[in-house]
Design goal:
Chain lengths: 267, 267
């Protein structure tokens, strides 16, 4: 998906919500377990219910891999079901030496038709370059993550700046704001002004709102740029809003709340 | 697999070779393509042929994921086929926030019965802890990798030391030499004395010998400890040694050469 199309979708719909399909089999409503593929049945209902309120879906590959081949089948069905109007992210956090990253890029951009994949920066340029070589696809590199462990390395001093700052600054030269985004956790709101100083133009994928406690207001005020420039992901707080047969309606209601709030910030 | 068993296997057989099953469908011999699962047929033949000369197999998940469900099937069949005498490594380079890393750990330690999985350190302690919670399983954390991109961040200054040194030093306290190994690339031989100063006891998984040009002699001299303490991985130079119907014999011959050389260094 071209950047212009993403920005248009955000502005036309008034939402920069990404719904995270962390569809843990053990947490989906009991009545769905009669389906041959309960996770896909769940995802399909969630997608149908939330489509109007978001511009993107993010599939967390771990929740699918943990179920082996069956999980991979749910993943393939789900990504095929998401309409092309929506930006499809594989949250896979891959990255390896060049010839191996080439295979991961093939997995997510060819075998599965994702628009974007998340990538870890530790191994440097040749671990990221193979993803960037795909036209019309996006590489989303980990910058400052939303978890506690972000203090262990990301926030540590590295040659006169924080490691995550070095990562943002260095990696930003390997691509451009049309094929490269960065992960910046919503729980790190106090760093967002700093992040925008380093990356005024890039889109940021922002997890950590909802269950993890990040404030949508805070990060919207601090991180938005003229193109909006943020995709805010909410997973558990939306998809597991309800546990009964009304789960999709309940998910839709929460997504609609985020949508309403986002409309205000976009004005 | 318990550390004692791994050390015994190395000393009894006189080899610390790990064969890397980077089994790219496009590179396996033509005549195997008639099989319903050509990659598994290839791996099975390679495993049968090299079993006597190695103590470990490493499956590079990227080469399987790139083929979608079919690839995942080849992966499951392959890991199930490797006998329990051999240390089974998933080279997956995973790592995410806690609840997600828990799912990755489940994928590789439960759904697939690997002994070990490689993990990226960038996201810190809670991204690694869920792997370490499995008894009798191993977490292999990226330290200093074998690729060019290692200079971008791993070798950069980070608070008075190199980033990879900080990673080795910090992560070593999160587990112990019985459940934690580190990746140290063979192309970085000049750093091995330094690595051993930080980690005198831990096993190191050493990729980069063979196709990538690292010297087995160099790293064996510099990195061995009293328990051997290294697993040297060779992938392409062994598995793609031959292209004809004799491919497995040719792979065996190369593995046997490494075995002979390793016997000398173990003395």
């Amino acid at each position: 998906m071209h950047r212009n199309r993403l920005v248009e979708a955000i502005k036309n719909k008034g939402t920069y919500l990404c719904v995270g399909l962390d569809s843990d089999l053990s947490k989906i409503p009991k009545h769905l377990h009669v389906h041959p593929d309960p996770v896909f049945a769940f995802n399909k209902a969630i997608i149908d219910a939330t489509l109007d309120h978001c511009v993107s879906y993010k599939i967390n590959t771990a929740f699918y891999e943990s179920r082996g081949i069956k999980g991979w089948e749910s993943l393939e069905r789900t990504v095929a079901y998401i309409p092309d109007t929506h930006f499809k992210i594989a949250d896979a956090k891959r990255g390896d030496i060049g010839n191996t990253s080439t295979q991961y890029a093939k997995a997510f951009f060819e075998t599965l038709n994702f628009d974007a994949v998340t990538v870890a920066p530790y191994m440097g340029s040749d671990s990221i370059q193979p993803f960037l070589e795909y036209e019309k696809k996006w590489t989303i590199v980990l910058g400052l993550t939303s978890n506690k462990g972000a203090t262990d390395f990301e926030m540590q001093e590295a040659g006169g700046e924080k490691l995550y700052e070095k990562v943002l600054r260095t990696v930003s030269h390997w691509g451009n704001p049309g094929n490269l985004m960065f992960v910046a956790g919503a729980t790190q709101a106090e760093e967002f002004i700093n992040i925008r100083r380093i990356l005024p133009e890039h889109f940021l994928l922002v997890p950590g709102v909802g269950f993890q406690g990040g404030s949508l207001k805070d990060i919207s005020e601090k991180a938005m740029n003229k193109d909006c420039g943020i995709l805010v992901n909410v997973s558990r707080a939306i998809i597991f809003a309800g546990e009964t047969e009304n789960f999709a309606e309940e998910a839709r209601a929460i997504a609609a709340q985020y949508h309403e709030e986002m409309k205000q910030y976009l004005r």
